[in-house]
Design goal:
By secondary structure, the protein is of the alpha+beta class. It is about 30% helix and about 30% strand. The termini are far apart.
Length: about 260
């Protein structure tokens, strides 16, 4: 893989040419940034891409703060390590943004990945297509990641209702108990299928479920003609993804601004 070329393609197709990530969301290109605003309060609001210079950065940051504050929305500036200008992270912090946990942007070619889901004995994969399936996903993610999954539940239900062809969700079942779950988002206009979730019940970790869910989604992505899989990987998942053949391209950090939580200079 030509890492620089793939990263440039990712920036162009997934960020600069981004499409709305769900029903009721819209993409705008203004003030040197590409941003998304969601109709629903629990949708994703934020900046996906910015083409800024030292002379324009502070004004663009202030403009986005004014815009989202006017809507009464907290929002995220999704900053990648290679974004410019240098020192953009410091400018965001000075403007009142709070950084969250850094993740690693990883990409693999679907043709290079295993596509056979090797599951533990007694475990099967079930597609998630309705509210009952989403509830199973929410339950296992609450055990894997902690409480606070109501936003995820509503977003996935909306996506399955409005554009089911753009999302693949799956839950691993041990009998009647959900033990792992994940989803994949499929933009019809981009070469990257994106992986999300991959949460496993702590009692079931270390049995290959995470790898099996990667293989399951890789098979579907390849069958639908997507040349790449992309994931924002945590420190826990990065070593597994590396062993499967994913390459590190850059890091990404969410910078979150909450109106009223910080003064804007």
């Amino acid at each position: 893989m030509n890492h620089a070329a793939v990263l440039a393609r990712y920036d162009r197709r997934m960020r600069q040419d981004a499409r709305p990530d769900g029903p009721g969301a819209r993409i705008e290109r203004v003030d040197g940034v590409v941003r998304q605003t969601a109709e629903a309060a629990d949708g994703w609001h934020g900046v996906l891409w910015a083409d800024l210079t030292p002379a324009t950065a502070d004004a663009a940051i202030a403009a986005q703060i004014r815009y989202f504050t006017g809507l009464g929305r907290a929002f995220e500036w999704k900053l990648h390590a290679h974004d410019r200008p240098a020192g953009l992270a410091d400018r965001l912090v000075a403007a009142g943004f709070v950084p969250e946990e850094e993740e690693t942007l990883m990409v693999a070619e679907t043709g290079d990945l295993p596509t056979e889901a090797d599951l533990p004995s007694g475990v099967r994969l079930e597609p998630v297509t309705d509210a009952a399936g989403v509830d199973l996903m929410t339950a296992v993610h609450a055990r894997a990641f902690g409480p606070g999954r109501a936003r995820f539940r509503g977003q996935l239900l909306d996506r399955l209702a409005a554009a089911p062809e753009t999302v693949v969700a799956v839950v691993a079942m041990a009998g009647d108990t959900p033990v792992s779950a994940a989803r994949m988002e499929l933009s019809p206009h981009a070469p990257f299928a994106t992986l999300w979730g991959g949460g496993t019940d702590p009692d079931w970790r270390g049995r290959g479920l995470y790898r099996a869910l990667i293989a399951h989604r890789a098979r579907i992505a390849a069958a639908r003609g997507y040349p790449y899989l992309q994931v924002d990987a945590s420190d826990q998942s990065r070593p597994i993804l590396q062993r499967l053949g994913f390459a590190e391209l850059t890091t990404t950090t969410p910078y979150v601004f909450t109106p009223g939580a910080a003064a804007v200079g």
